[in-house]
Structure to design on (334 residues):
């Protein structure tokens, strides 16, 4: 089974999306998905939603013109598309953030969780708890009208990334938007923190009252590979992006993050068929049609932090990120 490395501009054309709580927005319907969002069938880089606690899956037309593809992440199908002028370079993997006090060698505290597919090949993870703290800082400052936090200490290497917000004891999806184009982490996390919290078209903008019940996940996408067989990927390890032509001959894309198939209990065929439906394919799905799919697999480093952990780390590990305002009060989940 042939496979090739996906690098540079090829990766910037990836369609992003999620898992689906609302009806899929098909080509031609209006989309938002954050600043610069336009209709799903407009021919710029594809984005989408991911649905009920899933990864990502969307319909969109792909074109080489766009440098950045925004993507509505976990929680709801959709075909929102946008393009802007962020980086399209290759992802870096060298500069690693030192693990702060109280963290394990993998960069996680005992109370934090990493997602399926986090890390690869035994190397030290790039994603860190400080990134989640920074996302909480950015959102907190915005909601309370404080000056934005200063430049954080973690690496500023470029990565494709997603910021996901969930809420409550049952961790319901509250917003998820990201990009398959590599962005410098300082600006990328700052941008997509607010975009996912305030601009996800599936949800109203977040409010101050919701902060104490939030969970933040940062996902950094790595190891993109084009494969020759649509079954050449591993459930729970790889995220997948498919490209196919619908009944009208239009090119469509859809994607799921690595955790989706495992969380849903799907096998390869069920995952592929779900992605096809989320991408807007309505005809009967045959094995011959599945063989026409172009599939790219990738991995993700993911870390999740709840509001309680955020407050604890800011109080006990001095994760201030240059913020001069008082710490928000700790509250239990409602």
């Amino acid at each position: 089974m042939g496979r090739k490395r996906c690098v540079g501009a090829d990766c910037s054309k990836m369609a992003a999306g999620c898992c689906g709580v609302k009806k899929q927005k098909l080509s031609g319907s209006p989309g938002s998905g954050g600043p610069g969002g336009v209709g799903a069938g407009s021919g710029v880089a594809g984005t989408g939603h991911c649905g009920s606690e899933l990864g990502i899956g969307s319909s969109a037309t792909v074109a080489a013109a766009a440098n950045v593809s925004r993507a509505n992440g976990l929680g709801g199908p959709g075909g929102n598309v946008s393009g802007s002028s962020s980086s399209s370079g290759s992802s870096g993997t060298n500069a690693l953030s030192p693990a702060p006090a109280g963290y394990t060698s993998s960069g996680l505290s005992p109370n934090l969780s990493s997602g399926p597919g986090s890390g690869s090949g035994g190397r030290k993870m790039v994603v860190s708890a400080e990134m989640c703290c920074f996302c909480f800082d950015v959102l907190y400052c915005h909601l309370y009208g404080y000056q934005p936090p200063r430049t954080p200490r973690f690496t500023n290497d470029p990565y494709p990334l997603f910021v996901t917000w969930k809420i409550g004891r049952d961790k319901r999806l509250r917003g998820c938007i990201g990009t398959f184009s590599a962005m410098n982490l300082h600006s990328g996390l700052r941008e997509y923190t607010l975009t996912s919290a305030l601009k996800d078209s599936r949800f109203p903008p977040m409010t101050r009252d919701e902060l104490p019940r939030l969970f933040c996940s940062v996902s950094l996408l790595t190891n993109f590979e084009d494969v020759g067989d649509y079954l050449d990927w591993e459930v729970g390890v790889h995220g997948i992006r498919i490209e196919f032509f619908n009944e009208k001959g239009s090119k469509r894309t859809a994607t799921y993050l690595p955790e989706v198939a495992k969380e849903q209990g799907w096998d390869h065929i069920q995952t592929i068929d779900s992605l096809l439906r989320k991408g807007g394919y309505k005809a009967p799905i045959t094995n011959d049609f599945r063989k026409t799919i172009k599939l790219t697999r990738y991995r993700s480093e993911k870390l999740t932090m709840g509001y309680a952990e955020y407050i604890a780390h800011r109080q006990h590990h001095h994760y201030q990120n240059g913020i001069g305002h008082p710490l928000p009060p700790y509250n239990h989940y409602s």
